[in-house]
# Entry
Amino acid sequence: MKTIALTLFLLLLTATGFSQNRQRQNAPTPPPIEERVETLLEKLNSELSLSKEQLDSSETILTDFFTARDKIMASGGRPDRNKIESISNKRDTELEALLTADQKKKYEKIKEELFQRRRRPNQ
# Structure
């Protein structure tokens, strides 16, 4: 059930990104940050069996990431890829610093599924 919810959530995020025009007018509002963080934490915890401390730290890292990302996306126009990439790299570095060696291996496998944006072909 969690996998289905996460898949639907990621599809919603992807669809939201693709449906917006270049001026980002009439852009649908993404789910609240808390909801996105909770969904990702459930997935990470189910796959990585995080400790209480890891969960708490991960929540802070993901909240900071989505807050920064939403700020960039709300600025209007086409979002700056370098800024998005920078905050994504920061998120990954901070999350990986919390994990054990075994958890890092598992995280590398699920990271693409969790965070990679689906790109549409150039038209």
